[in-house]
Amino acid sequence: MDSTSRYIWAVVGVVGGAVVLKIVSKVLSALRNRAKTVEGFPGPKTHWLLGNLDTLTNDEHGLTLMTSWSRLYRGVYALWFGPAMPVLVAYHPDTTQAILSSNEPKDEGFYCFLRPWIGDGLLVSKGEKWARTRRLLTKAFHFQVLQSYMEVFSQSTNVLLNKWRQLDGDHAAVELYKDTSLLTLESLTKCIFGVNINCQDTDVSHPYATAVLDMLVLMNQRLLFVPHHNDLIYYFSLSGYRFRRACRVAHDFSRKVVRERQLAKQSGVTDDQRKTKYLSMIDILLEARDEDGTGLSNDEIFDEVDTFMFEGHDTTACGLSWLLHNLATHPECQEKCRREAIDVLGSRSTLEWEDLPKLQYISQCLKESLRLHPPVPFVARRAANGVSFADGRRAPNGVGIVVDINSTHRNPDLWPDPEVFDPERFAPDKVEKRPPFSYIPFSAGYRNCIGQQFAQNQMKTAVALILKNFELTHDASRPPVRDPKFVLRSKTGLWVHLKQL
Length: 501
Fold this sequence. Notes:
Blueprint lengths: L2 H35 L22 H13 L3 E5 L5 E5 L2 H8 L7 H4 L3 H4 L8 H11 L5 H6 L1 H16 L6 E4 H18 L13 H18 L6 H5 L2 H29 L14 H7 L10 H32 L1 H15 L14 H13 L5 E5 L4 E2 L5 E2 L4 E5 H4 L43 H18 E5 L7 E3 L3 E3 L4 E6 L1
GO molecular function: heme binding; iron ion binding; monooxygenase activity; oxidoreductase activity, acting on paired donors, with incorporation or reduction of molecular oxygen
Cofactor: heme
C-alpha cells in the first residue's frame, strides 16, 4: 500500500472513529437523560442492557413479582424496558388517583397492536376526539338501553345451558373460558349488530366469531414475541398475514351490517317492523348527534363498533369464567348464590331488569372475583403534561405510567388477607370504609370503562341462570395459572366439573 492510500485510510479511520464516538456520546447522553427523568422513583435492580426485562416476565411469575415490588417500593416505582425506556408503575390509591383523575392519554406503545382492528376508537383515541366520542356514546349505555338487553343475556345463557345438558356423564369437565367466550360473543353481536351469529352451536362456525377469536390469540402471541413488535417484521410474518386476514373478515362483517342498517333506516324499516325488543348499538350510533346536528362518520362508527367488540367480549368472558371458577372453588359461596338465584328466579328461565338489585350476594361475589382476578390487570397512560403525586413527586412529561390494578387489589393495607376470596368485603356496611381508587376493575376517572354496567349485568344474569341449573365443582387436577396478556386468562384453562340439578 503506497503512502497516498495509507493517508486516505487514515483519514477515513479518523472520520469514522469520530462519527462512532459522536453516536456513542449521543446514545450515552440519551441514556443519562432518560435516567434523570425518573430520578426520585426507586425500583428493582436493573441489567445494564436489558433493564428489568431479564427478571420481569409476562406470566404468573411476573404478576407475583410486581405485587412483591409494590409492597417494597411505596407509592410509585420505576421499571426499565431495556437501557433507555423507563416506565413508572403506580398501584396505591394516592398515586393511581392522580393518574386516572387526569386527562392523560393512553400509552400508544401499549395499545398500538389493537389499532389495525379497532382503529381510532374510544379505547385509544385522545383529546377532543375522545371527549366528543365519549359524549355521543353515553346514550348507548343509558339504563333504558341496558334494560332492553336483559332478554338477550338470558337467551344466550340458556343456549349454553342446553349445550351443557347434552354433555356425557354426571360430572362432565368443561373449560369455562372457551364456553363463556362464545356466550359473550353471541350476546354481544346481538346487542351491537342486532344479528344472531349462533356461534354457541357446535355445528356452526361463523366466520366473524372465528375471526374475533383468532385476532385475540394472535395479538397475545405478538405481545410475547418481541421481534413482532416491529410493524415491518410482523407484516411479513405468517402471524401478521393471519392477523390481517382475520381483520378483513371482521371488518367486512361489521361494515356490511352497518351499511344494511343505514339502508334500512333510509327505507323506513324500524326495529318494531323487524320485531326486535331492543335497539342495537349500531342504531344508536347512527342516530347520535352533536348540538349542531353533526353525527359520527362511517369510519368513526366502524371504529366504535370494533372497539365495542374487543372491549365487551373478551373482558366479560374472562370476568365471568373467573367468577364461576372462584365459586366452584368455594362451594359455600356458590350455594349461597344458588339459593339467592332460585329465590329471585323461581321457575323462570329469564332474568328481568327488576331482578338485578335483588342479587345482592351474587353481586358481592362478582366484585370479589373482579378484585382477585381483574380482567384487565394493567392500564397504561402517557404523562403528556406531567403528573404530580400527593407526596410531592412528579412524573415527567412523556414518561409512560402503568397502573397496576392487580397489585392495587392485593394491597394488604387496603384488603386484609388479600389472597383470600371473601365476598363479605363488599357487604353494604363495609364498602364506604375503603378509600377511593382502591377498587378499580374497570379503571376509574375520566377514561373508566363506559360499558362496565353492561358487562356486570351480563355476568350476573349468566351466573344466576347457571347456578340455578348446575352445580360446579373445582377440578383440583388442573389448577389455574394466571396468564396476563391484554386480559387475564389462565394458561392451564379454568376447568370445572358440572352436575345438572
